[in-house]
Automatic annotation (TrEMBL):
Family, per entry: Belongs to the PrpD family.
Domain MmgE/PrpD C-terminal: 292-461
Species per Swiss-Prot/TrEMBL record: Penicillium bovifimosum
Domain MmgE/PrpD N-terminal: residue ranges: 18-262
Name the UniProt record assigns to this protein: Uncharacterized protein
Top-level lineage group: Eukaryota
Length: 484
């Protein structure tokens, strides 16, 4: 065990060992109360997303295949009353959290933290309990989740954050392996040298192709690869298996050197971002919660259209009079969501398209899970607008979230609006709004008593003596979200 750290001493260790020392020594008392409170609401949102996603068609398809290929184990698969080994359980539970584009995202270094951390941590603790370990309490789950919330975005900032999306990487899957490994290492109480091994083992598995967004089921599962592989890495490290040392700063084949290569940035990566402001600047504060059921890059599109609807209700009362919709956006949003959507489209593709999201907002005045029912995705009213929509990259837009929507009508009238950032980014959803989202989106999927119990246990997590009760509450079957 290394001595209690100081910024000067940890700087001498190198960035990987510095991070490992911080992970090892962090306690809840080191974390401001408002940060701990926010973390609990974020965790609640993650569980809510899992409840919504557990029995979506593509989740059930994944579950059926994995139940067939994997033997029973000790770790709960949420919503199925079945148990698997820790790795497939983490993979499936992550697929549920990421199942419907409702989950959290980091606004500076995009990743969906809850889909990586909560499945890995609960699978890790269930696995250890089955081997005779004492119960894990809520304080340990909260602390370990915060470790993951801090680690993943820092890895992303080293690689210029959302720039990874412009290069075609599924950024959260690249950044998330280390987050899972660090969080699981914390909950298992690994010493710094073993945390370093876990990071090295996890980082060598990291990847994720953003082309998965164009209609594939596997888009829903890719963050699960990070959850599973980081858990795998930490369990190997716990058993004494060694990983790549100094994996972040190693110049030949190191994580940052390899993923930064060809970035087009100067410098190609920013190594110091991994540990800059550790314990002072909380990356958790840049985690955003979605009010809309679509990819984060579409949210400013939706909000800009909504402003136009409020300002010009008469003009937008007859959508057939629209001749052109132009959506201008920054590079990352354009490359992620500005692609040309074509019919037919799956729910996955629809949720990733700015043009489709704009059309849904115009027709339905909301973008919620109900709008992505199978029978609604192919509506002529939607596609008539999608086909009139042009998405363009506008470098002159000031902020990366800023978007401008211009609508032209058959009579020659033009209306236009610019929004600097969507609701959920500026302003972020409040804790109360997150709670209302949890209640609203899970209503009818689980009974009120179970929903209230999950809510109570998560928001009072420091006093929860055994987190296995959360697994039990999530294990019971949920009703299907009807997308037929």
């Amino acid at each position: 065990m290394i001595p209690k750290s100081s910024p000067e001493k940890d700087a001498d260790l190198g960035i990987t060992k510095h991070l490992c020392a911080w992970v090892n020594q962090l306690s809840l008392n080191d974390i401001p109360e408002d940060v701990r409170t926010r973390a609990k609401y974020l965790i609640l949102d993650g569980f809510g997303c899992a409840i919504v996603g557990a029995h979506l068609p593509w989740t059930e398809k994944a579950a059926e295949a994995i139940f067939e290929m994997e033997s029973p184990g000790d770790c709960v698969v949420w919503g199925y009353e079945k148990k698997l080994g820790p790795l497939p359980a983490a993979l499936l539970n992550s697929t549920e959290v990421q199942g419907f584009e409702l989950d959290d995202w980091h606004s500076l270094a995009p990743l969906h933290s809850n889909s990586i951390l909560l499945p890995a941590l609960l699978a890790a603790t269930s696995h250890q309990r089955a081997k005779g370990a004492p119960p894990f309490n809520g304080a340990s789950l909260l602390l370990s989740t915060i470790v993951g919330y801090e680690t993943g975005p820092r890895v992303g900032l080293c690689l210029h954050g959302s720039h990874m999306l412009t290069r075609g990487w599924h950024s959260g899957v690249v950044f998330g392996h280390a987050a899972s490994a660090a969080a699981v290492s914390k909950v298992l109480g690994l010493p710094p040298h073993a945390i370093e091994d876990a990071l090295g083992i996890s980082c060598t598995q990291a990847c994720g192709l953003m082309s998965a967004q164009f209609g594939s089921d596997v888009k829903r599962m890719q963050h699960g690869f990070a959850a599973r592989n980081g858990l795998f890495a930490a369990l190997l490290a716990k058993g004494g298996y060694t990983g790549i040392k100094e994996v972040f700063e190693e110049p030949y084949g190191g994580f940052l050197a390899a993923f930064g290569q060809g970035s087009g940035k100067e410098p190609p990566h920013l190594a110091d971002e991994l540990v800059k402001g550790l314990g002072q600047t909380w990356q958790l504060e840049s985690i955003r919660v979605k009010p809309h059921a679509s990819m984060a890059g579409t949210h400013c599109t939706i909000d800009t259209v909504e402003v136009l609807q409020k300002k010009h209700p008469a003009k937008l009362s007859n959508l057939t009079n629209i001749t052109c919709i132009k959506i201008e956006m920054a590079e990352a949003a354009f490359k992620h969501g500005g692609w040309k959507a074509r019919r037919p489209l799956t729910a996955t593709g629809a949720q990733m398209s700015c043009a489709y999201a704009a059309a849904v907002q115009l027709v339905d005045t909301q973008v919620s899970p109900q709008e992505f029912q199978h029978g609604l995705i192919d509506r002529d009213s939607i596609w008539a607008l999608v086909d009139k929509t042009e998405c363009v990259h506008s470098p002159e837009l000031g902020g990366k979230f800023e978007q401008k929507v211009t609508i032209t009508f058959a009579d020659g009238d033009i209306i236009s609006e610019t929004v600097n950032a969507p609701r959920g980014v500026n302003p972020p959803l409040s804790n109360q709004e997150i709670l209302e989202k949890f209640r609203n989106f899970t209503k009818g999927l689980i009974d009120d008593k179970r929903r209230e119990m999950i809510e109570k246990l998560v928001l009072d997590m420091e006093n929860l003596q055994d987190i296995s009760i959360l697994d039990e509450l999530l294990a019971s079957p949920q009703l299907h979200l009807d997308l037929a």
